[in-house]
Write a structure and sequence with these properties.
Order of helices and strands: EHEHEHEHEHEHHEHH
Low-confidence stretches: none
Structural class: alpha/beta
Mean pLDDT: 95
Largest sheet: 7 strands, parallel
Number of strands: 7
Length: 266
C-alpha cells in the first residue's frame, strides 16, 4: 500500500503514545482516521491537535477488555467511510510483577486486553476488508513477543500469542488480497510502564528508566507507516539492545537464556 492519502485507517490506543503519534502522522498524509480508546475526551483532543476535520475522522470509543459488539463499531466506521483500509491494533497494557506474586485475575485481564480484544476487533473488520479484497492488518506487539523477561510473564505470554495469531492469520488472508504487519517495538517513550499492572492489579504509577530513554513515539510511528507502505511483514522499532535480543534469541537461544536473567527491566 504505497499511497495512504484518503485511505481509512483505524487506530486503537489512539489517545496517547504511539497511537496518538500515528494519528498525527496519518492526518499529515491526508488519510481518513478512526480513533479508538477508552478515553473519549482524550481522543477528541487528539483530533483537535492533529487538525482533523469532521469529514476526515471518526471517534469510536472502545474498551479492549469488553470486546463484545465490535461488529456494531465496524459497521459504524463503514457507514461513515464505506471502507476500512488499515487496522492498527495498538491498544494494550503491560505488567511489572513476578509470576509468584501475581494474582490469576491479572493474567486474565492482560490476555483480554492484549490478545482477545485485538482478535475480536480483527474479526469484526476482516469481512469488510475481504469483500473489498484489499487491506492491511497491523498489530503492535513487542520485542517481548519474541523473548520473555522477568516481571513480564503475563505480558510476554499475551504478546507471544498476538505474534502467533497474526503469523497464522497472514497465511489465511493472503488469498483475499490482505497484508499482515507485526510490529515488535522495544522501549518507546510512552505511558506504558506508568499504567502497567502490578501483582494485585494496581498500576505501577512510575516510568521505567528504559521507557524514559526509549525511542520517541513519533519515530516509532514513522517506522510503522514506512513498513505499511513497503508491505513488510515484521519490524522491530527500538534501541540496539532490545533489537539485538530478538536476534540473540533466534540464533543463540542458550546464551539468551542466560543474558535475560540479568537484564534490568525496570
Amino acid at each position: 500500500m504505497k499511497e495512504l492519502k484518503n485511505k481509512v485507517v483505524w487506530i486503537t490506543g489512539a489517545s496517547s503514545g504511539i497511537g496518538e503519534a500515528l494519528a498525527h502522522a496519518f492526518a499529515k498524509l491526508g488519510s481518513k482516521v478512526v480513533l479508538s480508546s477508552r478515553k473519549e475526551a482524550d481522543l477528541k483532543k487528539v483530533v483537535s491537535d492533529a487538525g482533523l476535520g469532521e469529514e476526515d475522522c471518526l471517534v469510536v470509543p472502545l474498551d479492549l477488555e469488553k470486546y463484545d459488539g465490535y461488529e456494531v463499531l465496524a459497521a459504524e466506521v463503514m457507514a461513515k467511510f464505506g471502507r476500512i483500509d488499515v487496522l492498527i491494533n495498538n491498544g494494550g497494557v503491560s505488567q511489572r510483577s513476578y509470576f509468584a506474586e501475581t494474582e490469576l485475575g491479572v493474567f486474565e485481564r492482560i490476555m483480554k486486553i492484549n490478545f482477545m480484544g485485538t482478535v475480536a476487533l480483527t474479526k469484526a473488520v476482516l469481512p469488510f476488508m475481504a469483500a473489498q479484497r484489499s487491506g492491511v492488518l497491523v498489530t503492535v506487539s513487542s520485542v517481548t513477543g519474541k523473548f520473555g523477561t522477568p516481571l513480564r510473564t503475563g505480558y510476554a505470554g499475551s504478546k507471544h500469542a498476538v505474534v502467533g495469531f497474526y503469523d497464522a492469520l497472514r497465511a489465511e488472508v493472503w488469498k483475499d488480497g490482505l497484508e499482515v504487519l507485526i510490529v515488535c517495538p522495544g522501549y518507546i517513550k510512552t505511558k506504558l510502564s506508568l499504567n502497567a499492572f502490578m501483582g494485585d492489579g494496581s498500576l505501577q504509577g512510575k516510568m521505567d528508566s528504559g521507557q524514559k530513554n526509549g525511542l520517541s513515539p513519533e519515530l516509532c510511528a514513522h517506522k510503522i507507516i514506512s513498513a505499511i507502505k513497503k508491505g513488510k511483514r515484521e519490524i522491530y522499532p527500538g534501541g540496539f539492545k532490545e533489537v539485538a535480543g530478538v536476534y540473540l534469541k533466534r540464533f543463540f537461544p542458550a546464551l539468551m537464556a542466560k543474558v535475560v536473567r540479568k537484564v534490568n527491566v525496570r
